[in-house]
Amino acid sequence: MRFFINGDQVEVPASVQTVGSLLEHFDIDNKVVIVEHNGNILSKDTQTEQKLEDGDRLELVHFVGGG
Amino acid sequence: MLKIGPYEFSSRLLLGTGKYPNFDVQKEAVDVSETEVLTFSVRRMNIFEPNQPNFLEKLEVENYTLLPNTAGAKTAEEAVRTAKLAKASGLCDMVKVEVIGDQKTLLPDPIETLKASEELLKEGFIVLPYTSDDVLLAKRLEEIGCHAIMPGASPIGSGQGIVNPLNLEFIIENANVPVIVDAGIGSPSDAATAMELGADGVLLNTAVSGAKDPVKMAKAMKLAIEGGRLGYKAGRIPKKRYATASSPTEGMSIG
């Protein structure tokens, strides 16, 4: 599978079929991560269930220090 | 109590979380400041370095009301998207609308700020726009339903303090929602002055995180804000051109 994550093309194993498995793949499933999938912001409660397809565009954002 | 939308705070200091020397100093500074509201930003995650420490992990987030900002946005559209991303975390529904119109001064774009605030109010956010010290813009932001108005004291991170106290006073006098002086505070006396002018609170970051000893400065800011507020409530004496003796002039044993 090939996705565009945060603007970069990223290859992941074919087993990565959902946002949940993508977050596990990158070892960020227990962190505060907000996901935008093809321009749609996913709610935290249901984001892991979102199915993914080859070529999907994803934004993975989190909170950083700021004022 | 400082009331913003549905929230009530005993502390009138809102603290930013940017640019501390490290997360331990940050945590200690946040603790001693006794703030109840933390600001922060939304950024892309580096998925290839998942173990990079994040400021959220050091703080007991559940003890604070979180105030994400839309820093980085140059248009209303970008600000709205950033706010929605933050809210999707399920951790917050307040937002500091920050739409920067000029990269050198980091002054807010008034028209985009108004547009973004309007849109976010429709979406049900508790909206706190960072604005210039323009008196009429502050009024317009209140009229559309913003829950607090956050005029800058001087440019972000400049530490110049309050460059136009008259405008801030006008904004405060006119407002029926809390006025939080945001940006430009450099020293405890700046924060105290803002509170003496009648501000409902102060939002600052660099003044603490960039101080030689951020923990001490966090404490100093807390005390300055409390002192300034008390002074405002007490009502200062009017300024006079010449002296008035504090000691009685009757019953002197000399002359």
Automatic annotation (TrEMBL), chain A:
<protein>
    <submittedName>
        <fullName>Thiamine biosynthesis protein ThiS</fullName>
    </submittedName>
</protein>
<dbReference type="InterPro" id="IPR003749">
    <property type="entry name" value="ThiS/MoaD-like"/>
</dbReference>
<dbReference type="InterPro" id="IPR016155">
    <property type="entry name" value="Mopterin_synth/thiamin_S_b"/>
</dbReference>
<dbReference type="Pfam" id="PF02597">
    <property type="entry name" value="ThiS"/>
</dbReference>
<dbReference type="InterPro" id="IPR010035">
    <property type="entry name" value="Thi_S"/>
</dbReference>
<dbReference type="InterPro" id="IPR012675">
    <property type="entry name" value="Beta-grasp_dom_sf"/>
</dbReference>
TrEMBL record, chain B:
<feature type="binding site">
    <location>
        <begin position="205"/>
        <end position="206"/>
    </location>
    <ligand>
        <name>1-deoxy-D-xylulose 5-phosphate</name>
    </ligand>
</feature>
<keyword id="KW-0784">Thiamine biosynthesis</keyword>
<dbReference type="GO" id="GO:1990107">
    <property type="term" value="F:thiazole synthase activity"/>
</dbReference>
<feature type="binding site">
    <location>
        <position position="157"/>
    </location>
    <ligand>
        <name>1-deoxy-D-xylulose 5-phosphate</name>
    </ligand>
</feature>
<comment type="function">
    <text>Catalyzes the rearrangement of 1-deoxy-D-xylulose 5-phosphate (DXP) to produce the thiazole phosphate moiety of thiamine. Sulfur is provided by the thiocarboxylate moiety of the carrier protein ThiS. In vitro, sulfur can be provided by H(2)S.</text>
</comment>
<keyword id="KW-0963">Cytoplasm</keyword>
<comment type="similarity">
    <text>Belongs to the ThiG family.</text>
</comment>
<dbReference type="InterPro" id="IPR013785">
    <property type="entry name" value="Aldolase_TIM"/>
</dbReference>
<dbReference type="InterPro" id="IPR033983">
    <property type="entry name" value="Thiazole_synthase_ThiG"/>
</dbReference>
<comment type="pathway">
    <text>Cofactor biosynthesis; thiamine diphosphate biosynthesis.</text>
</comment>
<dbReference type="GO" id="GO:0005737">
    <property type="term" value="C:cytoplasm"/>
</dbReference>
<feature type="binding site">
    <location>
        <begin position="183"/>
        <end position="184"/>
    </location>
    <ligand>
        <name>1-deoxy-D-xylulose 5-phosphate</name>
    </ligand>
</feature>
<keyword id="KW-0704">Schiff base</keyword>
<dbReference type="Pfam" id="PF05690">
    <property type="entry name" value="ThiG"/>
</dbReference>
<comment type="subunit">
    <text>Homotetramer. Forms heterodimers with either ThiH or ThiS.</text>
</comment>
<feature type="domain" description="Thiazole synthase ThiG">
    <location>
        <begin position="4"/>
        <end position="248"/>
    </location>
</feature>
<keyword id="KW-0808">Transferase</keyword>
<dbReference type="GO" id="GO:0009229">
    <property type="term" value="P:thiamine diphosphate biosynthetic process"/>
</dbReference>
<feature type="active site" description="Schiff-base intermediate with DXP">
    <location>
        <position position="96"/>
    </location>
</feature>
<dbReference type="InterPro" id="IPR008867">
    <property type="entry name" value="ThiG"/>
</dbReference>
<protein>
    <recommendedName>
        <fullName>Thiazole synthase</fullName>
        <ecNumber>2.8.1.10</ecNumber>
    </recommendedName>
</protein>
